[in-house]
Every structure is written in C-alpha cells, then in structure tokens.
Amino acid sequence: MQINRSILLRGSYANIGDYVALTKPRVMSLVVFTALVGLMVAPGGIDPFAGVVALLCIAAGAGAAGALNMWYDADIDAVMARTAMRPIPSGRVSRSEALAFGLVLGVCAILALGMLLNVAAAALLAFTIFFYVVVYTMWLKRRTPQNIVIGGAAGALPPVIGWVAVAGNVGLEPLILFLIIFLWTPPHFWALSLNLAGEYARAGVPMLPVVAGRAETKRQILLYSVLLVPISLLPWALGFAGAIYGSAAAMLGAIMIFLSWQVRRSNDRERRPARRLFVFSMLYLVLLFGVLLMNAAPYAQSR
Fold first, then answer.
1. Rounded distance between C-alpha atoms, residue 63 and residue 16, angstroms
2. How far apart are CA 179 and CA 52, in angstroms?
3. Which candidate among 53, 117, 144, 287 keeps its CA 20 to 30 Å from the CA of 158?
4. Residues contacting residue 136 through CB under 8 Å, at least 6 positions apart
5. Is the pLDDT of residue 5 over 80?
6. Euclidean distance between CA atoms 60 and 228, whole angstroms
7. Could you read off the pLDDT of 169-215 as tens digits, one per residue?
8. Which pLDDT does position 47 carry in this prediction?
9. Of the candidates 240, 232, 139, 108, which has an alpha carbon nearest to the alpha carbon of residue 180?
10. So where does this one cross the membrane (predicted)?
C-alpha cells in the first residue's frame, strides 16, 4: 500500500472545524439520536439536566471513537478518494494530535458519565469505545470480510447506554433496539461498499465485495434486510410500542426489502440501486426510531 508518509507525519495546521471533523459528526448525530430514544423509553424517566449530561457524554464518547478510528486508519484514508480529505491524510491534523484528542475526549466522557449519572452507563460507554477502536478498527477491519457485521455491535450500543443511564441496568427493550441496529448495519454499509469495492481493494481492506464478490454481497444485503423486519416489529409485538410504530416498521421494512431486492437483481455496472438503498437505509433508521420515540413514550411513562 503506497501512502505519502510525509503527509501523515508532518505538523498540523488545524482549526476547530478540523477537530470537529475528527469526531465524525454525521455518525455522532445518529449515535446521539438512537441514544436519546433509549433514554426516553426507559422506565422511570430522567430529569432534563441529567438527560442532557448523558447525551453530551455519549456524543463525546462517539466523537472520541471517531477520532481514534481516524488516527489508526490514516494510512487507509490517505489512499481512498472518499476519505483522502479527512483532517489527518490532508495534513491539517497530525496523527499524534488526533490520538491525544481522542484519548482525552474519551476519558473525560467516561469519567463525567460515571460521576454525574451512574457507573454502569460509564462502563458501557467505555466498552463501546474500546470495541469500536480496538476490536473493529485495529483487529477486524483489516482481517475479515465480517468486519462490519461484528464491528456493528459498537454502533448498536448507544440506545442501550441511554437506557442504562436512566435505569441503571439492561432490560429487554434496549436489547431489541440493539438488535435492530445490529441487523441494519450490514445492508447499510455493504450498499455503500458495493460502489467503493475498487477503493477498498486498493487500500487492502477485505470488505465483503472485495473478498466474496458482488453477487454474494447482494445476497447478504437482501438476507439481512429480510431478517431486520421481524426484529423491528418486536417493540410492537411485545407491547412497548403502539400500533403506529408497528405499521411504520412494517412499511419501512417493506421498502428496505424492495430496495435490497433491486440491488440483488441489478447488474455489476449499475450503481444507482446500491446508492438508493444506502440513502434510504439512513432515512429508515431515523424514521423507525423517531416513530418509536413518539409511540413508546406513553408506555415508558406508565411503567
């Protein structure tokens, strides 16, 4: 793998925006939103100040994980067009500065959550950061095409952290939310990687389209999309979300399967079906959790 080492090692010319970019703000916003849902549907409720503290700590933890991911993956980012202009490969932030920033941000987030709310939520936040940075970024990403499947557990934990911040323990409901995001992650990310297989191959990352081929990736996308639908219906089936949520989950799931089927039937030169699925998958999760937040709140308050 050929990279410009001088770019990765030279001093930085960073501004505040570059450090914000290190935190992967788009990913962070989704993390905070799913954590908010877990926090709001948890029994007992939480006062607004504690809720804001919890979300800020979770956001900081997610940002720390993003910064440490960029620190370790700077060599990969430098050779992929999609990531070449990130702060480290573009030379605006040095790797050592990104490492220090990520570590300080992560430690502060964990300590603040533990001292201001509860130790269980802080421990789960620490585990999530560790899993994303060490298990996924340092180990799985460069070694197995199942990287995004196993590593997706880190992205599925924020609603559980939000729940634990309120309740102090884990219940069935946040585990179902975990499963929804866990099953959503592979079709979401593989839809993106189908159109970036050449870049991943050039960077030496064994994403599923690179290792198993496009046909198998499309089959796996459809499989995970089908599995996602019954799991997404569990909050309604088990009674902690209402009929509005159940209807929305069924409708969104049907669209997800339809778009995945279009990807499955598309030829290798078509890029639009995978792009449509990728874009819709982001909308899918926001809408599904948004409806759950509105439809499950009365149930949480009554427990």
1. 14
2. 25
3. 144
4. 147, 150, 151, 154
5. no
6. 29
7. 998 999 999 999 999 999 999 999 999 999 999 999 999 999 999 99
8. 85
9. 232
10. 27-46, 52-72, 93-113, 119-140, 147-170, 176-200, 221-238, 244-264, 276-297
**Quick count: other Cβ atoms within 10 Å of Cβ 193?**
23
Give pLDDT, residue 19.
94
Sign of CA dihedral 118, 120, 121, 126: positive
Q: Please report how many Cα atoms fall inside a 13 Å half-sphere around the Cα of residue 172, on the Cβ side.
A: 8
**Are 301 and 45 spatial neighbours (Cβ–Cβ below 8 Å)?**
yes
Contact indicator for 146, 210 with CB cutoff of 8 Å: no
Query: How many H-runs (helices) and E-runs (strands) does the chain carry?
Result: 16, 0
Closest to 252 measured CA to CA, from 296, 174, 187: 187
Contact indicator for 57, 112 with CB cutoff of 8 Å? yes
What whole-number distance in Å separates Cα of residue 45 and Cα of residue 41? Answer: 8
State both tokens at 55: 């979300």
Total-model pTM: 0.92
| CA distance between the termini of the chain | 56
Residue 13 CB contacts under 8 Å (≥ 6 apart), including other chains: 91, 92
The single-letter code of the amino acid at 252 is L
Which residue bears the tokens 């934990």? 157
What CA–CA distance (Å, rounded) separates 24 from 12? 18
The C-alpha angle 274, 278, 281, rounded to 5 degrees, equals 135
CA distances from 214 to 4, 33, 94, 152, 223 (A): 30, 32, 36, 20, 14
Q: How does DSSP classify residue 33?
A: H
CB 161 within 8 A of CB 179: no
C-alpha 298/C-alpha 241 separation (Å) is 9
Residue 248 is classified by DSSP as H
pLDDT digits (tens, 9 = 90+) for 107-158: 999 999 999 999 999 999 999 999 999 999 999 999 999 999 999 999 999 9
